[in-house]
Amino acid sequence: MSLHPAIAPTRIHGVVLCALLSCSLLFITYSLNKHHHTDLNAERMRTAASDIREQIGGIRALMASLVGLHQSAPASPDASMLLYANQILEHADYISSIGRYEHVSQAERRSFEANMSESGILNYRIKGVAKDGTVSNLPVTEWSYPISALEPLLPTNARLLGIDLGSLDGLEQLLDTIARTNDILLTSFPESWPYGGQLVLFRPVYLGQQTPDTDATRWQQSAGGFWMSIDVGRLLSALAARMSDFDIRVQVEHGDSVTELYVQEPHYERPLYLRFLYPRQQLSEEWTTRSGKLSIRFERQIGFTGSLLFIAATAIVAFQLIVLQFLSYQSEKRQRDREQALSKEALYNARELAERTLNAMQDAILTLDIDLRISHINPAAILLLNAKPDETLGRPVSDIIQFQLIEEAGSQLDLQSALLNLSHNSNAEYDVIPIADVHSDILLKLTLTSLQSQEGVITGHVLVMRNISHERRLTQKLAYQANHDALTGCRNRHHFEQALAGVLDEMAFSGHEHALFYMDLDQFKIVNDTCGHRAGDRLLKELTERLSAMIREEDVLARLGGDEFGLLLTNVTPEQTRNISDRLFKLFQGFIFHHEDKAFAVRASIGVVHIDSRCNNLKDVMAAADIACYAAKDSGRNSLYVYSADDRALAQRSEELSWLPRLQNALQDDKFILYIQPIASLHREVSAGATQISPTIEHFEFLLRLRNPDGSEFTPWQFIRAAERYDLMRQIDRWVIRTALRTIAELDGGPGGHCSYSINLSGQSVADPTLADYIREQFDNYKPDPTRVWFELTETAAISNFSIAVDLFKSIRECGSLIALDDFGSGLSSFGYLKNMPIDIIKIDGQFVQGIADSKFDRHMVLAIHQLSETMGVKTVAEYVENEDILKELMDIGIDYAQGHLIGKPATVEDTLSRCFSAPDATGTG
Amino acid sequence: MADQTSRHCSRRSGWRAVTAACLSLIACVAAASPTPLCLYVSSYHPGHVWSDGIERGLRQTIDGRCEVTSFYMDTNRRPSVNDMQNAGLAAFERYRNLQADIIITSDDNAARYLIVPYLLDGDTPVVFSGINWSAEEYGLPTGNVTGIVEVAPLRHMLINTLSAVKSPADEQARSQKRLPGEARILYLGSDSPGDLKMLTRIDTIANSFGTSVDSILVNEFDSWLSGYRLAQAYDLVIIGNNANVRGFDHDVARRHARLHTRTLSVTYNDWMMDYAVLGYTRLAEEQGEWAGLAAIAILDGLPAGEIPVVANRRFETWLNTRLVESSGLVLSPHVTQRAKKYQ
Predict the structure, then answer these.
(1) Residue of A nearest to B302 (CA)
(2) Whole-angstrom Cα distance, residue A543 to residue A541?
(3) What separation in angstroms does the CA of B306 have from each of A574, B125, B130?
(4) pLDDT tens-digit series, residues A496-521
(5) Which residues of B touch A119 (CB under 8 A)?
(6) What is the three-class DSSP state of A416?
(7) pTM
(8) Which residue, A81, A313, A652, B42, is most buried by CB atoms nearer than 10 A?
(9) How far is the C-alpha of A567 from the C-alpha of A583, rounded, in Å?
């Protein structure tokens, strides 16, 4: 997927911009978060420090008050201190203890111990103590700092009474220092001591009510002091609770000694993210005295809370979406601008193209505004109207041109009404003639179209005028050709049938009767073949003229086929029909066609059907006429036969019709079978100076049979007429060819495998120009020996399709097969045909062979044919050899082959071959 | 059948095992975390004001930390040495029967007849309380014995009372104008070792002021009444204990005091406040509270020998306003304004 070249930089810019803005937003969020938390944390730490300062100040004030109390109540300081200390401990829970220590010289030591024992602490002794809390009796020093009082005095801390603080490492020096300086000492007791790990503040007191003003005098008047132990955890409990997210560390140091008094690890209610981005923020607060320092350090880590991170991420995403949406909007806007520009350009081009197209079109086009004034005229219209554009544009169309409707001769087209009546999105077409000074002879196809805006408002009209003069003439010509015979000029079959159907339909209402004549010229082919087609055509034209002359105008004469004519006489009575029939028959009896020096008597077989109320459909009427025509042919041609429903001959014709479905079914269901009939070869053998003839079976003729469901069989003579009539013979012949060649191939190498076989072809197949290819194809399929195949064709069929038959014969002979001319002598035998016909065998018609033993004419006919054959170098076959006499005569004549019941009757292939080649006398005559 | 019996026995054995396990578990839990047993041995009897105060302070302090069982030697009502020795033995027997974890005693007789003969240097920690002034006479403290002694604020009492009277109500108050070293002081108490010990200490303190203390120690109530009348001739009367004064009738004594009080009197026993103008009294609860805290510390693992013996430090100042009113004494404001009023 590639970006549009104009969009890609925009997207890249958008991405870069988003990245930069996101970074900026992230940085802003970072900075705001930092400043916010820095300020907030600083304020919180300052507040905390201030609170601690106040608390420390309070503690110092309490100590100062203790000192003041001590100095103001010399009479019973211990009792006062006890009461005051209890008050302090009661109200300041972070003060864990308040103690009193003395400053006792070596000289005062005994009396001091005695006084302490007397005042309630039995066996009071000044003791030394180690850091681990071990009490020991130390050597008496010059000065000692024994603990003399302690509040709260508890069994757990009472052992501190008498402890010499000076025995602790370094503390003696510090106590000495604060005694001299009247300063506060910040320190802590050892961990093993009561209150160990707590902050301990020492404050000196002096004898007298006034604090001495010099170090020396303060040392001289030193009376020990007080201490307070501070539980830092409690002191900071409230503060620590509200600053639980801070790292708080409290430590006290004096000299090299540093003691950690309190540590609070930060606890964050919500996890912090991206901490590494921020430095730790800290604040230290220190209270320094000459002898030590108390420091409190707050530290806080800044980071992103989950909610802030989510908000920041959401804001960034939202911001990116907004930017992307904005960029997308900009991009789309630019795209729309480009598309609009392209659209305008396309519109201009379309308009230009439309105008050019209009101008280039052959149709004359006028565009009209809503007032039917011409707004555009193309060159074709200029030529058509012979108008000048400057004078035409803007004028009402009615001033320029008006139209006359073709269909309604003489009426003028109301153009304005026609345009107003146009429905939406529809056209109106009219065939018109322009009413103008010029071109008034042309026909126009006028198309009216309304132009509409998108809202459906009509904004104008378009008139398209196409010159349809030529088309219309062509249409008229085609219409004429569709209904007329091109040769004779009379109606053709199509029109005839239409007219017949029309009168049949009309007959139910009119009650009129009609007559149909079906005329088939006899021997028309002879004229065609002998004089050529032109002569035949002229014959047909002359006949048409004569027929036309004898009929009424309302009658319909049509050429139905090559030499077939139909005549429909409308509204005639049976009597009139007979009269016309007579006249028509007489016409043919006297019609002689002359061509060059030849004269042909043109005769016809005429079938007549009187159409009355009993005839109700075209098919039946045509069939009746056809039957009647054939009946006339059957009756010897040149006759007229009037159809009658109870006519016997016509019944026979009807029976032929019944063959049609049986034949079709036989082809479809393979109900045909092939018989073979042996044909004996009449060989001449010279033996001992005499010629002997021995008939041998070397050839068979395939004969077609149709098997009935009951097992009986039909011979071809029963159905071949119907097959020819209904044009089924070509299919049947092909079945015979295919089956016979396959059979021959199958017989190869077996009984009959060495023999040759004849296959009959019908006249219809001979006329089929594709038959030769089909035969070659079957030879290729089954590979029979072609030299052992004869194709038989009747003399009549060969002559009727002479030229095609000659081509077919040549093709068959090229395959290697032989051609036999069947029934020679029965038809229009013309020896002249034989000269130009490539044949190999002549089968002499049986009518001559049957009488050869009794009729000299027949014997001479057979002899003549045989002699002619010998001259041509073709073999002869005699049919209908039914007895020995016939055979003997044939042998005497020298006929080559004999066929007939004497030789062998037709039977199935198996039976025939079995009979011919299994019996000892198989080669006999049978 | 054999299978059924076997199953039945097996089921029964199972229940036994479960029951035994439960009982064992309960026993283990009980043995693992027993509540310590503290035996409190009072020298006196229930109803003894001082001894009851100590026990009250003890129980309030030790609340729930150990189970306190009390034993009363009743030596006040059976003061013969033989009875007190028997009481000490009975207390020890009680301790042995109870197998107490710690023993807490109150007052001197418990120390003398229980701690000293049976418990010194033993394994059982002992916390004493209420021993007057010093425990040294009993050889205390030792490694397993510590406690708190009972002292009276005698010095404080003398210093304050000697300057308490602002102006004399009549002739008998004149002595209070005198300097402390010139004041005549009388101690009225019972003829008992305790009062005798107290008299000695007061006299010692008075000697430090340059004066001395006369005394009237009696065994009969009538003698006490007579002595009270005689004492009105002194500048200061110190009312001692009445523990061994037979026939002491408080109502009579109260009326007698209202009728005859003419001079400043003071007592260090709060139960004698009906007969003294001022009182500097100790708190028996303080003794019990300390003993309780010490017992807890010992139970927490602190050796008794590491707890020093201390003395009571809390006192209360009382002013018997009825006697002040009936006597016509005018006292110094610094005394009357801070003293609790006793009515």
Answers:
(1) A156
(2) 5
(3) 168, 12, 20
(4) 998 999 888 888 788 888 999 999 98
(5) 311
(6) helix
(7) 0.50
(8) B42
(9) 13
